[in-house]
């Protein structure tokens, strides 16, 4: 039986690590977007991908309040979906 590592910080969460990796990849991909999109679409995509990480970390801090925890995780879903398009 495999023993799971203790999660002591939001950075230990796999979902956070994946969101962070995706945000870094999105940053690299958007560097190659056309210059005329630099201040509109690129900015929006990058902010959406960072928002996912922010919402996960905020939810971690508020996890003792179950309803708030669920709301923060739910808040991150639209940003995640937008960043994957």
How would you spell out the order of helices and strands? HHH
Report the radius of gyration as a whole number of Å.
15 Å
Q: How many structural domains can be distinguished in the coordinates?
A: 1
From the 3D structure, determine the CATH topology.
de novo design (two linked rop proteins)
Distance between the termini: 38 Å
Count of DSSP H/I helices: 3
Q: What's the level 1 CATH class?
A: Mainly Alpha
Which spans have pLDDT < 50 for at least 5 consecutive residues?
none
* DSSP strand count: 0
Round the mean pLDDT to the nearest integer and report it: 81
The CATH superfamily is known as 23S rRNA-intervening sequence
- Tertiary shape: elongated
Based on helices, strands and strand pairing, what is the structural class? mainly alpha
Give the assembly state of these chains. single chain
Largest sheet: none
